[in-house]
Amino acid sequence: MAGEESTPGRVEEAEAGVLAWIDRDITGPMRDFRDPDQEWRRLFSELYGTFLLVIVAAGGGMMGQAFPDTISRTAAVVAPGLMVMAIIMFMGKVSGAHLNPAVSIAFALRGDFPWRRVPGYVVVQLIGAVLAALVLHWAIDVSATFGSNYVAGGYSMGRGYLMEALLTMGLVSVILGTASGAQNIGIFSAIGVGAYIALAGLWGSPISGASMNPARTFGPDLVGGNFSCYWVYVAGPLTGAVVAVAIAYALRGPGGGRSGSSAAQGDLFTEDRRPGQA
User: Fold this and answer.
1) Which residues of 102-131 are buried (b: 16+ CB within 10 A; e: fewer)?
2) d(CA 99, CA 46)
3) What's the pLDDT tens digit per position in 93-144?
4) Tell me, which fold does domain 38-265 have in CATH?
């Protein structure tokens, strides 16, 4: 009888423990991140993540200029993919780890990210890229133009635009696909995105540099004072992102569901518009 009488007590104790855990680790943080005053955490996350991405992406070219024959093209294009993989793993839950204006706009078009938050994300991504280029210029003491992207000699701006659009279409397709309900693989989506960036750079970089990111090119261009090809690295990625959103709709229907919204916004602040959608 004593054992039977203690069973309800143990159940109540377990329930209390579960409720305390939920409040501490789930509902409590969600309350904090729903507070508009906490938006600075997500914005700082995007600034810091983009800073780290550009440190590696632009740093390869600048370091190669300072120390010739030390960094191969393969290393220079694979390194950003590895960095993005790491960034998604350590801060994706906070801000969604967009690191790229084209990705932020794609998530908004898909219905997974509020349009009102896009300007803030884009601004801090650009700031992070500029800060990275400034730090690289100070540390390596070569022009930031060596870390930027320009269309290869002998190729027209139009071909560079087409290459950036094509590469970004694939990148955003991978990002939206790994954020969908059917294919969501949690934190390991970082592997898919990082691997795509590396592979795209391996075959696409000779023509356009495989930027796929207006912010990544903006920082070195601004610090280096050379915007001669910059429109290619804005129009190309944005075109590719729009096409990728259309492809995602054809494959999975409308977005805005729990999984995609969580991936786009970070799990701690998710606006779930259409629960059941991919």
Assistant:
1) bbbbbbbbbbbbeeebbeebbebbbbbbbb
2) 6
3) 888 889 999 999 999 999 889 999 999 999 999 999 999 999 999 999 999 9
4) Glycerol uptake facilitator protein (1.20.1080)
Q: Is the dihedral of CA 179, 161, 83, 145 positive or negative?
A: negative
For the chain, give the mean pLDDT.
85
Question: How is 173-233 classified by DSSP, letter by letter?
Answer: HHHHHHTSTTT--GGGHHHHHHHHHHHHHHHHHHHH-----HHHHHHHHHHHT--TTTTHH
Mutual angle of helices 118-140 and 214-224, in 10-degree steps? 50
Name the residue with tokens 């590895």.
82
Q: Which of 71, 53, 55, 73 lies closest to 190 in space, CA to CA?
A: 53
